[in-house]
Structure prediction request, 257 residues.
Amino acid sequence: MLNWLRTLAGGNKAPTKTIPDTLWMDTLLQFPFLARRPVAELQELHTLAGKFLKQKEFTGARGLKVTDQMAVAIAAQACLPVLHLGLRWYDDFKGIVVHPGAMLARREVTDQAGVVHRYNEELLGEAMEGGPVTLSWQDVADAGNTAEQGHNVVIHEFVHKMDMRDGAADGCPPLPSRGAHASWHSVMQPAFDEFCEKVAMAKRFGAAAPWLDDYAATSPAEFFAVTSEAYFVNRERFTLDFAPLTVLFDKFFIPAK
Prediction:
């Protein structure tokens, strides 16, 4: 890490309390979906990202050195989902591991016959329950270009962390009441079912593929993470296909004060 981030972490008796303006502006230029947000939100995001950086520890994998620019880019995107909710949603972990590119994870699955299958899975990121977040820097850095397709690996993994606050990710973050849970599922489940049907029709019968990444059809947890990516980085296009989810996400991510 470079000098500013070391200072922020407490390596200096008079630590910097905010991200330097030049570094922040460079980040906004790199990620236009951030720069397009209202000025008041950007000011809040600037402050929150600085607090996030003081709370988290970055580690580079496979020889990667995490620079100030890289850390701020990750912090700014990670803070979008909790901009109106607060950093307490991320207080169950501290580490963020950054790989140069996609990583291979060893997987082991036992089928119904009891046969164990071992394989490698290529990942762009991973969120561990109660543990660190792992990210591919190549994909983080490309987020400005992939926003048009609704992709954002940082938001995806950090929404998983929000989902995991009450246990394993299941597509529903912690909510204040049973009624709130019921309302959430009454919107999410039909949207998930409809999306899975569109993916199936595209794969089996050559129908038009949905705009959203079909990885969202894997499970309700992935549907929540993938739709959240699109909601934050390309709201207008997302709303064309998922208007009820835009309303639902507005209520969750931007609660009334």
